[in-house]
Amino acid sequence: MIGLEYKTTSDQLKNIKDQIENYIQKNKDFSKSADTMLSVKIDQFAASSIDIRLICFTETTNFKEWLNVKDSLAIEIKDIVEKNKASFAFPSTSIYVEKN
After folding, report:
1. Among residues of the chain, what percentage have pLDDT more than 90?
2. What's the pLDDT at 13?
3. Where are the domains of the chain?
4. Which site in 28, 29, 53, 64 is 20 to 30 Å from 36, CA atoms measured?
5. Distances in Å between the alpha carbon of 47 and those of 34, 58, 98?
């Protein structure tokens, strides 16, 4: 799950989703068979974020190699989000004070 701030524009969301999917499609570390799922879709408008659900599978079944692939993917996602001038969300609460 990738949580982005609500101020993320529709264009930023589309670009981020497309670029993550493109990275996975072109990377040899990820499985791309007909029966292997790849999905980068908006999952929900959560309390503090717009959530993108990422589902993909690696070629390796070796745990140590999988950790390296996962690490590289996380760094790439961070780079993609930053290049699109968007930010990751974190739980927050807004307080509105009315003046009489």
Report:
1. 87
2. 98
3. 2-83
4. 64
5. 35, 31, 22
